[in-house]
């Protein structure tokens, strides 16, 4: 229940998705899952959805590494098929203090089970710190 309360405290803006920040070092972080403002986000198998981060970078970085995983029963499972080079979805290098718009399509494979999970999306900088980190519950149908 406590985690749910924290989740609802992280509402950023009307168009953004309600999420729980999991250690972002950037400021003004907004996270959006297309078509979902309030979790759990419903993600149909066999379809694409778009995730976006908008943030003010805390430092210079020449790379961003994408981390994406689902947590099931306390075990993290990597999100299959994701290109881990975050610079494919924004312009790098990034200057500290600049506003970054980052958007990536994510496929829900038909092989995924119909399940409710917590997913995490993270963008890690050159120093190994998460510029952004967002967790939210989703239901795969």
Automatic annotation (TrEMBL):
Residues 1-16 form the signal peptide. It holds the Pfam family E1_DerP2_DerF2. One of its GO terms (biological process) is sterol transport. Transmembrane segments: none annotated. It is found in: Secreted. The keyword Secreted applies. Residues 19-138 form the MD-2-related lipid-recognition domain. Keywords: Secreted, Signal. The keyword Secreted applies. GO terms for cellular component: extracellular region. InterPro entries: Ig_E-set, ML_dom, NPC2-like. Gene3D superfamilies: 2.60.40.770. It comes from the Eukaryota. Its main location: secreted. GO terms for molecular function: sterol binding. Belongs to the NPC2 family. This is Ecdysteroid-regulated protein. It comes from Eriocheir sinensis.
